[in-house]
Structure formats: structure tokens, C-alpha cells
User: What shape does this take?
Amino acid sequence: MGNMQFGWVRFVLRSGMLQAKALGALDDWDVAFHSTTCEMLPKVLATSRLVKPGDRVAALDGQAVGIRGDTGRIRKPFVRHNRHTGQKEWFDPRQIFLTPSIRYCCQPHYSRVQQFIGPSDCKCDVRIALQVLLRPGTYSVGHQTVGATALIDPCVSNDSIEYYTKGDEHGSHILTGLLVGMELREDTPGKASRRPS
Assistant: This one.
């Protein structure tokens, strides 16, 4: 279900799966991923939906969501040539951004690595993402915006790797999975013997 890679574990979000079944979304809707941080995860799960910058949410005591400042994200709207559609478009960063590629989700513009030390000093870099079902026709597709010069994911063109939506249609996206990606750090004692064969 979606373009996953080694090192990720998926936990089913039961309420999202029930909603997806009720809407018939499991067969016909598109799979996408959205990265988040460990700090924001409880707030996202509390609302059971993604919101765009500027939306006011109860999980933040009625405050508006902003564009994260710890990444190199685009902050202002502009006119651009969309390499997926071949058309000019008004590109507004105040939208919900997703991707069909977990690799794109891991780009520094979107993902923040958290460090975890487990038993026996096992050191890992951890990333958090959400698996989302999107109703076809409720989002746009565009090219990468992270400045990549090489192919990011062999399964998805760089020209079709971003999905974005205003999220105005309630229920047009459903959170169906919590994804946790873990990678052993170089400074983990005995790293070579801990890798799966």
C-alpha cells in the first residue's frame, strides 16, 4: 500500500481505516505520505486530519498553524511552471503537502530526524510520517520543490512527486497509518553486526 522502503514500520490507525471503509476509499483513493514531528504527532492524531497553514485548530488551543520555520520550505505564493501539467499555476505554500513517495517525505525540507537510543546503546535516527488516503480530484500534482538535481525515488518522477490540497473538502483525506522509520546511526557500537542480512 504505497511506495514504502526498508526500515519503516506501519501502525494502522483504526479510526481512519473505519472511515475509509465507510467511504469506500480503500479501493479507489490514492495513497500518499505526510511527514510530521514527534512533537506534533499527538496534535495531528487528536484532530484526525491534516490542516494547512493559517487554519485554527483546537489541538493548538485555537491558534493558527504556521509554516514550519526549521526547514527550507517555500514561504510565499508565486507563479510557476508546473512540470507535471506543463501549465503555469499560482503556487501557494499555504496548503497541505503530501507525496506518493516515502523517500521524498524524508527530505530535510519535510522531515526532521529525531535521535533515539535503545537497549544496548543501539542508536537510531527516527522519522515520523503518516499514510493518507486522498480522494481523487481533490488535490493537485506538481514537481519537487527541494532543489533536487538527481532522481529522488526510482518509482516516482521528480515532476510528479508532490501532491497539494487546500483541504477544503472535509473528509477528502483520511489518516490510515502511522509510519516510523528507523536507521542505525554510524556511531552505534557493533553497527555491522546489527544490520539485517
Summary: Residues 14-23 form the longest helix (10 residues).
